[in-house]
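User: I'm new to structure prediction. If I give you an amino acid sequence, what do you actually give back? Let's try with this one:
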Amino acid sequence: MPGPLDGVRVLDLTSNFMGPYASLLLADMGADVSKIESPAGDTTRGIGPCRNRGMGPIFLHLNRNKRSLVLDLKSAGGNAALKRMIRGADVLMHSLRPKAMARLGLSYADARTINPGIIYCGMHGFGQNGPYADRPAYDDLIQAAVGMPVLQSRKAGPPDYVATAIADRVVGMAATSAVSMALFRRERSGEGQEVQVPMFETFAHFVMGDHLYGHTFVPAMGDWGYARMMNPDRRPYRTLDGYIGVNVYIDKHWQRFFEVSGHPEMAEDPRFADIHGRTQHIGLLYEFLGRVFETKTTAQWAKLMTEADIPFIEMNTPESLLADPHMKEVGFFVEEEHPSEGTLRSLGIAQQWSESTPELRYPAPRLGEHSVELLAEYGFSEKEIDDLTGSGAVYAAEPHRTRHGD
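Assistant: Good question. You get back a string of structure tokens that encode the predicted 3D arrangement of the chain. For your 406 residues, that looks like this:
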């Protein structure tokens, strides 16, 4: 069954994390994503362990359900080929600086001239109407610019980055949403358009909804920063034999927890009677939780929390998550045979659809694996394709052969 975006053709000129994550989400929903790579390939191909050069784990997870076409856009032939493909595409996505796209003759004005209905999505470091417009941007830089390391430092130690590419992936999700909404509008109006998704502003929107806090008011009413989120004792709690994640949050949760933990008198303390008071004294409560959870095993607390209907979960590592009973039951981690990389563990598609169910259609591609196939689908003749590959404007990978030649 085709996914909800079946039939939508996407030319994806992005690389690294942010853009490929955006196009991954579109591809998982059924969009036909042509991953346009330079002859050097996406930078993430070289990250981490691999069985074959250029097929590292980050790349494999970010680029499934896509097909790879290698074009040298600085060559006349490769540049002309992409412009011809724009005629038959629905979406063009890029993460280059606008000036670089303009030098290639691939600005929105250029693309719109070729195909007035194109949805043209540029993912930039900064809004193009501000003084930072031409600056380069990466996840670490955007985390720093928005203040995420300072927020982390309120918990413990010097300023520090979050241990995942959180800005790249959040902004990638925003780009996916923007492209989908632009496609929806085109269905109603028939009009294409340009959508710019800047990292700095998008991630600031994500973070500051929590942490503008007292500065929401003019003049400010207290400090910035949501105190509960930054408290150093907001963490998984050690038990006698492991760790547990617990979110004692609303009034009834706290009342029940004070009871089952053997401290019913705390329910009468006015400091802890409602969320306003608990927020002001959250440090005391987190210290209390830290002491109490160390008195029983994880299994004992799991039983008590379940009976009291208090939100909890056992803490996993990335490795133990593979054996998590819920993840195993829903089939989130999928083992598949990659044509060139052997047995791989893939991440499932999290949503469930009653109709138009998304599927894992293609494994992550080798560099230039689908160059000939995609050019043919976009209307290039066999001779034209031979000319492009012969000139070096296009690179096409050799068909994969197994060890036994079958």
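You can read the tokens as a compact description of the fold. Here is one thing that stands out. The chain has two domains: 9-206+329-395, 237-314.
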